[in-house]
Amino acid sequence: MKRSFCLLTCFFILLNLYSQTSNEQDINRDYFLEKSKRLNKTGWILLGVGTPLAAGGMAAMNKNFGDEGSAADFYALLMVAGFAMDIASIPVFISAGKNKRRAATFTLDYQNLYPPENWLVARRNQPIPSVTLRIHF
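Structure (tokenized):
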């Protein structure tokens, strides 16, 4: 009895696993355009903050270079952080460009078209193959 109950339970669990549907979101042109805009804005923020930070850190570090203490070290840290932000903006811009190109691609689909049925003529309803070409700008 225990064995049959366990087998029946496993069968229904496995049956449920194969019958689940995927919850993938519909990714379309607007999704990639919005993602491209967000990444482009993030890249400009990183570049806009990193460049003055690196330049200011470099100028202040040169001014305080000979002094003993932590001021020159702090400005060197600001300079390195600014350069790191500038370098980090490059992959963000590349990713934004890729998403923009993904949104601008064309789609080639295969689709079966069914002619209207004529109820007076007895014939088999066969699909007419067609090709759909969509170009997104």
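The radius of gyration is 30 Å. The longest strand covers residues 106-113.
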